[in-house]
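Morning run. Coffee first, then this:
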Amino acid sequence: MDTQTTLTTEHAHLLTQITDRARGVLQIASQNRWPSRELTALARYLRAELIRQLTDEERLLFPAHEATPELSRLARDHARLRACVDIIAAAARGRGTRSPAQIATTVRDLLTQLHNHLTTEQTTLTAPGRPTISTAALGACPHRWYPLTEGPAIDLDALPAERLLEAISDRLHRLPRGEHLDLCARTDPGKLCDALAGEDDYGFAYLACGPDQWQVRVTHRLDR
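And here it is:
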């Protein structure tokens, strides 16, 4: 990861990714159809990336500075964004009675809130006297990693080795019970699997054992 990557750059990427997924929802909803697939994709991204971003920022910023009016506003923004994400996630799970038009309104509200919040946050954090905040300081995986870990198969060689355990652990926590994903690499990922096997909820099975390609299937076991 480039430790010089600024929070502003990460925000721009985050907003672009959310906007792209939101467009899919709005396009289907404008036809008065329920955007099931598109809504699920948006909700998954929001839960995985936006909520993590908010949590990391709160951990870094709020305890480290006095409770200024600007930081208090950012905290309120975070609460409103979380509430909006919860509504979208519930709708994606088939809960609630919202119509396509109503969920479209919620998604538009999210985009407006997020754009305004990121603008305010960047202005606050780049004020004279404040240090530049980097993604390294936040301790977060760059948002560009999301497509590398979200599919049914993960190319381990595409991720930085020093953050591999963190990235795959995060992905496994989002894997629904009964589903699986494949870890692919040019070398044996056994040490990684050993590190991930601390929880009994996951099963590991080799599908390919080299010499040039290794593949391990990780299954999130059903409740026993």
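The radius of gyration is 19 Å. Good start to the day.
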